[in-house]
Amino acid sequence: MVVVKPDTVVRWHRAGFRLFWRWKSRSRGPAERDVSAEVKALIRQMGEANVGWGAPRIHGELLKLGIDIGERSVSRFMPPRPRKPRSQTWRSFLDNHVGTLASIDFFTVPTATFRVLYVLFVLSHDRRRVLHFNITEFPSARWTGQQIIEAFPEDTAPRYMIRDRDGIYGEQFRRRVEGIGIEEVLTAPRSPWQNPYAERLVGSVRRECLAHVIVLGERHLHRILRSYFAYYHRSRTHLSLGKDAPESRAVQPLAMGTVVALPEVGGLHHRYVRLAA
Protein backbone atom coordinates (compact mmCIF):
# COMPACT_ATOMS: atom_id res chain seq x y z
CA MET A 1 0.00 0.00 0.00
CA VAL A 2 3.02 2.26 0.45
CA VAL A 3 4.61 1.43 -2.93
CA VAL A 4 1.53 2.11 -5.14
CA LYS A 5 -0.86 5.02 -5.34
CA PRO A 6 -4.57 4.69 -4.41
CA ASP A 7 -5.59 5.26 -8.05
CA THR A 8 -3.48 2.28 -9.06
CA VAL A 9 -5.30 0.02 -6.60
CA VAL A 10 -8.67 1.19 -7.90
CA ARG A 11 -7.56 0.57 -11.48
CA TRP A 12 -6.41 -2.96 -10.61
CA HIS A 13 -9.73 -3.68 -8.95
CA ARG A 14 -11.73 -2.52 -11.96
CA ALA A 15 -9.56 -4.57 -14.32
CA GLY A 16 -10.03 -7.61 -12.15
CA PHE A 17 -13.79 -7.08 -12.05
CA ARG A 18 -13.91 -6.93 -15.85
CA LEU A 19 -12.00 -10.19 -16.08
CA PHE A 20 -14.34 -11.78 -13.55
CA TRP A 21 -17.48 -10.85 -15.51
CA ARG A 22 -15.89 -11.88 -18.77
CA TRP A 23 -15.34 -15.33 -17.26
CA LYS A 24 -18.80 -15.46 -15.71
CA SER A 25 -20.57 -14.48 -18.94
CA ARG A 26 -18.51 -16.81 -21.12
CA SER A 27 -20.44 -18.79 -23.75
CA ARG A 28 -21.50 -22.25 -22.64
CA GLY A 29 -22.69 -23.18 -26.09
CA PRO A 30 -20.58 -23.94 -29.14
CA ALA A 31 -17.59 -21.66 -29.59
CA GLU A 32 -17.74 -19.07 -32.32
CA ARG A 33 -15.23 -20.97 -34.38
CA ASP A 34 -17.54 -24.01 -34.20
CA VAL A 35 -20.46 -22.13 -35.80
CA SER A 36 -20.38 -22.43 -39.58
CA ALA A 37 -20.50 -19.44 -41.86
CA GLU A 38 -23.82 -20.73 -43.27
CA VAL A 39 -25.44 -20.67 -39.83
CA LYS A 40 -24.11 -17.18 -39.11
CA ALA A 41 -25.49 -15.94 -42.45
CA LEU A 42 -28.84 -17.63 -41.73
CA ILE A 43 -29.08 -15.87 -38.35
CA ARG A 44 -28.39 -12.49 -39.97
CA GLN A 45 -30.91 -13.22 -42.73
CA MET A 46 -33.63 -14.13 -40.21
CA GLY A 47 -32.93 -11.00 -38.16
CA GLU A 48 -33.15 -8.71 -41.20
CA ALA A 49 -36.14 -10.33 -42.92
CA ASN A 50 -38.54 -10.63 -39.98
CA VAL A 51 -39.94 -7.63 -38.15
CA GLY A 52 -39.50 -7.87 -34.38
CA TRP A 53 -37.66 -11.20 -34.30
CA GLY A 54 -35.16 -11.40 -31.45
CA ALA A 55 -32.64 -14.02 -30.42
CA PRO A 56 -35.24 -16.28 -28.68
CA ARG A 57 -37.44 -16.45 -31.79
CA ILE A 58 -34.53 -17.06 -34.14
CA HIS A 59 -33.10 -19.64 -31.74
CA GLY A 60 -36.42 -21.50 -31.80
CA GLU A 61 -36.46 -21.53 -35.59
CA LEU A 62 -32.91 -22.86 -35.69
CA LEU A 63 -33.81 -25.66 -33.29
CA LYS A 64 -36.69 -26.63 -35.61
CA LEU A 65 -34.16 -26.78 -38.43
CA GLY A 66 -31.99 -29.18 -36.46
CA ILE A 67 -29.24 -26.63 -35.76
CA ASP A 68 -27.77 -27.07 -32.24
CA ILE A 69 -26.70 -23.64 -31.03
CA GLY A 70 -27.15 -21.66 -27.84
CA GLU A 71 -29.44 -18.64 -27.63
CA ARG A 72 -26.57 -16.46 -26.42
CA SER A 73 -24.53 -17.43 -29.47
CA VAL A 74 -27.48 -16.47 -31.67
CA SER A 75 -27.60 -13.02 -30.07
CA ARG A 76 -23.89 -12.48 -30.87
CA PHE A 77 -24.38 -13.16 -34.57
CA MET A 78 -27.57 -11.13 -35.02
CA PRO A 79 -27.43 -7.93 -37.13
CA PRO A 80 -27.30 -4.59 -35.26
CA ARG A 81 -30.73 -3.46 -34.18
CA PRO A 82 -32.01 -0.05 -35.34
CA ARG A 83 -32.92 2.44 -32.66
CA LYS A 84 -36.53 2.52 -33.85
CA PRO A 85 -38.56 -0.62 -34.58
CA ARG A 86 -38.13 -1.52 -38.25
CA SER A 87 -41.24 -0.98 -40.34
CA GLN A 88 -42.64 -3.77 -42.44
CA THR A 89 -41.79 -3.59 -46.12
CA TRP A 90 -44.28 -2.29 -48.68
CA ARG A 91 -44.37 -5.79 -50.18
CA SER A 92 -45.43 -7.24 -46.82
CA PHE A 93 -48.11 -4.55 -46.44
CA LEU A 94 -49.49 -5.23 -49.91
CA ASP A 95 -49.47 -9.02 -49.44
CA ASN A 96 -51.21 -8.81 -46.07
CA HIS A 97 -53.96 -6.45 -47.26
CA VAL A 98 -54.32 -7.40 -50.92
CA GLY A 99 -57.98 -8.36 -50.50
CA THR A 100 -58.88 -4.98 -49.01
CA LEU A 101 -56.66 -2.73 -51.12
CA ALA A 102 -57.32 -0.48 -54.06
CA SER A 103 -55.15 2.08 -55.82
CA ILE A 104 -56.00 5.35 -57.51
CA ASP A 105 -53.86 7.27 -59.95
CA PHE A 106 -53.86 9.58 -62.98
CA PHE A 107 -52.01 9.42 -66.26
CA THR A 108 -52.02 11.91 -69.11
CA VAL A 109 -52.73 11.39 -72.81
CA PRO A 110 -51.99 13.99 -75.51
CA THR A 111 -54.48 14.31 -78.36
CA ALA A 112 -53.99 14.97 -82.06
CA THR A 113 -54.72 18.67 -81.42
CA PHE A 114 -52.20 18.82 -78.54
CA ARG A 115 -54.80 18.90 -75.78
CA VAL A 116 -53.87 16.98 -72.65
CA LEU A 117 -56.47 14.61 -71.23
CA TYR A 118 -56.27 13.21 -67.70
CA VAL A 119 -57.29 9.59 -67.14
CA LEU A 120 -58.23 8.59 -63.60
CA PHE A 121 -58.50 4.89 -62.76
CA VAL A 122 -59.29 2.85 -59.67
CA LEU A 123 -57.55 -0.52 -59.48
CA SER A 124 -58.46 -3.43 -57.20
CA HIS A 125 -55.37 -5.32 -56.05
CA ASP A 126 -56.79 -8.80 -55.51
CA ARG A 127 -57.36 -9.64 -59.20
CA ARG A 128 -55.84 -6.50 -60.82
CA ARG A 129 -59.28 -5.37 -61.97
CA VAL A 130 -59.92 -1.81 -63.14
CA LEU A 131 -63.02 -0.97 -61.14
CA HIS A 132 -63.59 2.45 -62.68
CA PHE A 133 -62.01 4.95 -65.03
CA ASN A 134 -62.95 8.34 -66.39
CA ILE A 135 -61.42 11.13 -68.44
CA THR A 136 -61.37 14.87 -68.07
CA GLU A 137 -59.42 17.82 -69.38
CA PHE A 138 -59.75 19.78 -66.15
CA PRO A 139 -59.41 17.53 -63.08
CA SER A 140 -60.49 18.88 -59.69
CA ALA A 141 -60.87 17.57 -56.15
CA ARG A 142 -64.67 17.58 -56.50
CA TRP A 143 -64.58 15.67 -59.79
CA THR A 144 -62.07 13.14 -58.42
CA GLY A 145 -64.16 12.59 -55.28
CA GLN A 146 -67.24 11.92 -57.39
CA GLN A 147 -65.33 9.24 -59.31
CA ILE A 148 -64.63 7.42 -56.04
CA ILE A 149 -68.35 7.43 -55.23
CA GLU A 150 -69.11 5.98 -58.67
CA ALA A 151 -66.35 3.37 -58.33
CA PHE A 152 -67.70 2.02 -55.02
CA PRO A 153 -71.50 2.01 -54.91
CA GLU A 154 -73.29 0.96 -51.72
CA ASP A 155 -71.03 -1.13 -49.44
CA THR A 156 -68.31 -2.15 -51.90
CA ALA A 157 -65.59 0.24 -50.72
CA PRO A 158 -62.22 -1.33 -49.81
CA ARG A 159 -60.59 -0.88 -46.42
CA TYR A 160 -57.50 0.93 -47.77
CA MET A 161 -56.70 3.00 -50.84
CA ILE A 162 -53.15 3.82 -51.95
CA ARG A 163 -52.48 7.13 -53.65
CA ASP A 164 -49.70 9.64 -54.14
CA ARG A 165 -49.55 13.15 -52.71
CA ASP A 166 -50.74 15.03 -55.78
CA GLY A 167 -52.47 18.31 -54.95
CA ILE A 168 -55.52 17.22 -56.94
CA TYR A 169 -56.61 15.11 -53.96
CA GLY A 170 -57.88 18.12 -52.06
CA GLU A 171 -60.17 18.60 -49.09
CA GLN A 172 -63.36 17.73 -50.97
CA PHE A 173 -61.81 14.49 -52.20
CA ARG A 174 -60.63 13.52 -48.73
CA ARG A 175 -64.06 14.16 -47.23
CA ARG A 176 -65.71 11.92 -49.85
CA VAL A 177 -63.21 9.11 -49.21
CA GLU A 178 -63.58 9.36 -45.45
CA GLY A 179 -67.36 9.42 -45.77
CA ILE A 180 -67.49 5.96 -47.35
CA GLY A 181 -65.09 4.47 -44.81
CA ILE A 182 -61.86 4.23 -46.81
CA GLU A 183 -58.52 4.77 -45.07
CA GLU A 184 -56.01 6.49 -47.32
CA VAL A 185 -52.43 5.19 -47.51
CA LEU A 186 -50.15 7.89 -48.91
CA THR A 187 -46.91 7.01 -50.65
CA ALA A 188 -43.73 8.89 -49.89
CA PRO A 189 -42.92 11.92 -52.08
CA ARG A 190 -41.47 11.00 -55.48
CA SER A 191 -41.80 7.26 -54.76
CA PRO A 192 -44.00 5.74 -57.50
CA TRP A 193 -42.62 2.27 -56.69
CA GLN A 194 -44.73 2.36 -53.51
CA ASN A 195 -47.83 2.10 -55.70
CA PRO A 196 -46.50 -0.65 -57.99
CA TYR A 197 -49.73 -2.19 -59.27
CA ALA A 198 -51.04 1.16 -60.47
CA GLU A 199 -47.71 2.04 -62.08
CA ARG A 200 -47.60 -1.33 -63.81
CA LEU A 201 -51.10 -0.81 -65.19
CA VAL A 202 -50.15 2.60 -66.60
CA GLY A 203 -47.10 1.05 -68.27
CA SER A 204 -49.18 -1.74 -69.77
CA VAL A 205 -51.79 0.69 -71.14
CA ARG A 206 -49.09 2.82 -72.76
CA ARG A 207 -46.98 -0.01 -74.19
CA GLU A 208 -49.82 -2.23 -75.38
CA CYS A 209 -52.35 0.35 -76.52
CA LEU A 210 -51.76 4.11 -76.46
CA ALA A 211 -48.28 3.92 -77.99
CA HIS A 212 -49.91 2.58 -81.19
CA VAL A 213 -52.75 5.07 -81.68
CA ILE A 214 -53.31 8.80 -82.07
CA VAL A 215 -56.09 9.97 -79.79
CA LEU A 216 -58.50 12.34 -81.50
CA GLY A 217 -60.47 13.45 -78.46
CA GLU A 218 -62.13 12.50 -75.21
CA ARG A 219 -64.81 10.26 -76.74
CA HIS A 220 -62.22 8.51 -78.90
CA LEU A 221 -60.03 7.85 -75.84
CA HIS A 222 -63.04 6.49 -73.93
CA ARG A 223 -63.71 4.02 -76.72
CA ILE A 224 -60.07 2.91 -76.92
CA LEU A 225 -59.72 2.40 -73.18
CA ARG A 226 -63.02 0.53 -72.90
CA SER A 227 -61.80 -1.85 -75.57
CA TYR A 228 -58.40 -2.28 -73.95
CA PHE A 229 -59.76 -2.84 -70.44
CA ALA A 230 -62.20 -5.45 -71.78
CA TYR A 231 -59.22 -7.28 -73.26
CA TYR A 232 -57.21 -6.66 -70.05
CA HIS A 233 -59.89 -8.25 -67.86
CA ARG A 234 -61.09 -11.16 -69.98
CA SER A 235 -58.12 -12.22 -72.07
CA ARG A 236 -54.74 -10.86 -71.03
CA THR A 237 -52.75 -13.23 -68.81
CA HIS A 238 -50.85 -11.80 -65.83
CA LEU A 239 -47.68 -13.18 -64.28
CA SER A 240 -48.86 -12.08 -60.84
CA LEU A 241 -52.06 -14.12 -61.22
CA GLY A 242 -50.30 -17.37 -62.14
CA LYS A 243 -50.67 -16.50 -65.85
CA ASP A 244 -54.42 -16.22 -65.58
CA ALA A 245 -56.66 -13.29 -66.51
CA PRO A 246 -58.41 -11.09 -63.90
CA GLU A 247 -61.64 -12.76 -65.01
CA SER A 248 -60.32 -16.30 -64.77
CA ARG A 249 -60.02 -18.24 -68.05
CA ALA A 250 -60.67 -21.96 -68.09
CA VAL A 251 -58.07 -24.23 -69.65
CA GLN A 252 -59.32 -25.64 -72.95
CA PRO A 253 -58.20 -29.23 -73.64
CA LEU A 254 -56.87 -30.33 -77.00
CA ALA A 255 -60.06 -32.25 -77.71
CA MET A 256 -62.08 -29.04 -77.95
CA GLY A 257 -60.84 -28.37 -81.47
CA THR A 258 -58.43 -26.19 -83.39
CA VAL A 259 -56.96 -22.90 -82.19
CA VAL A 260 -58.65 -19.76 -83.53
CA ALA A 261 -57.40 -16.17 -83.07
CA LEU A 262 -60.01 -13.56 -82.11
CA PRO A 263 -58.86 -9.94 -82.64
CA GLU A 264 -59.20 -7.51 -79.74
CA VAL A 265 -58.39 -3.82 -79.20
CA GLY A 266 -58.81 -3.13 -82.91
CA GLY A 267 -56.49 -5.98 -83.87
CA LEU A 268 -53.58 -4.87 -81.64
CA HIS A 269 -54.05 -8.05 -79.59
CA HIS A 270 -55.75 -11.39 -79.99
CA ARG A 271 -57.44 -13.97 -77.80
CA TYR A 272 -56.78 -17.59 -78.71
CA VAL A 273 -59.52 -20.14 -78.19
CA ARG A 274 -60.29 -23.67 -79.34
CA LEU A 275 -63.34 -24.16 -81.53
CA ALA A 276 -64.74 -27.35 -82.94
CA ALA A 277 -64.29 -27.66 -86.68
SSE layout and pairings?
Layout: H1 6-24, H2 37-49, H3 55-64, H4 71-77, H5 90-97, E1 101-110, E2 116-124, E3 129-136, H6 141-151, E4 160-163, H7 171-179, E5 183-186, H8 196-208, H9 218-234, E6 258-264, E7 269-275
**Mean pLDDT over all positions:** 87
Return the CATH class of the largest domain.
Alpha Beta
**Number of strand elements:** 7
Pick out the low-confidence regions.
none
> Strand count, sense and closure of the main sheet?
5 strands, mixed
- List the helices and strands in order: HHHHHEEEHEHEHHEE
CATH architecture label name of the largest domain: 2-Layer Sandwich
Protein described:
The chain is of the alpha/beta class and 277 residues long. It folds into two domains: 6-77, no CATH class; 92-241, Nucleotidyltransferase, domain 5 (2-Layer Sandwich), CATH 3.30.420.10. It contains nine helices and seven strands. It has helices at residues 6-24, 37-49, 55-64, 71-77, 90-97, 141-151, 171-179, 196-208, 218-234; strands at 101-110, 116-124, 129-136, 160-163, 183-186, 258-264, 269-275. A five-stranded mixed β-sheet has the order 3-2-1-4-5, with helices on both faces. The protein has a two-stranded antiparallel sheet with strand order 6-7. A hairpin with a 5-residue loop joins strand 1 and strand 2. Helix 3 (55-64) packs across helix 4 and helix 6 runs parallel beside helix 7. The longest helix has 19 residues, at 6-24.
